[in-house]
Amino acid sequence: MRTTKRETHDELAQRADAVRATLDPTRMPRHVAIIMDGNGRWAEVRGLTRLEGHRQGREAIRRTLEAARECGVEILTLYAFSTENSRRPLEEVEALMELLIDALQVEADGLYRNGVRLRVSGMIDEMPDDVRTALRRVIALTEGNASLTLNLALNYGGRRELTEAARRLAEAVAAGRLSPDEIDEDTLARYLFAPDLPDPDLLIRTGGEQRLSNFLLWQLAYAELYFTDVRWPDFGKLDFFAAIQAYQARDRRFGGVELG
Questions:
Q1: Domain ranges across the chain
Q2: Distance between CA atoms of 17 and 22, rounded to whole angstroms?
Q3: Which end of the chain is more exposed for a tag (fewer CB within 10 A), N or C?
Q4: What confidence tens digit (pLDDT) does each residue in 59-90 have?
């Protein structure tokens, strides 16, 4: 959906509005998940630090939240910090945590005013105390909001999530609260990090890579996958609406066949 010439803000806004006007509100994905990739590479090609790429990524989150609200998406899950990210250099991890705390403080009032409810999925208990305190504050502030649910996947890994679910299932069986014969897909799903959220209908990955990177391995079983070369700091409303447009052009059969 991008052009080779450098477009003005107004031109991009006009193109975004034109794409949004083509969307069918009756076929909107209820839950969109995004792997926000490309912050570091965006910064490197501009001679900036990786941290500056992450800072610019915050602007992309604002644009994406606004786009999701405009087209009626109910849930937006963002892969914000993976279990693998913790293996990065300590200085980068600490800087990312500081950015997260700052973002929560700066964005809290805006989330509240716009009716956005904050949720978090992941191994939150293993995160620093100041991060958990900042998260709890915004979660409590926005608890009554119902316009859009923003679910941040923090210290999250799909394999870790399934491992934790299996461990807790085993504990329930050992304690006599659950019989092995009672374990089915629905039972396991109840032990995931956010069992009350529906599975994503659409996954968007920015930055040009085409893999799941240990994200929502159970929940994405039947999601539509959309990959774009646009790096996350450049991602905007036009790109989000283009992904929805592509989603609506697909025939979702969930493993079945089309009859007739």
A1: 34-248
A2: 9
A3: C
A4: 999 999 999 999 999 999 999 999 888 888 88
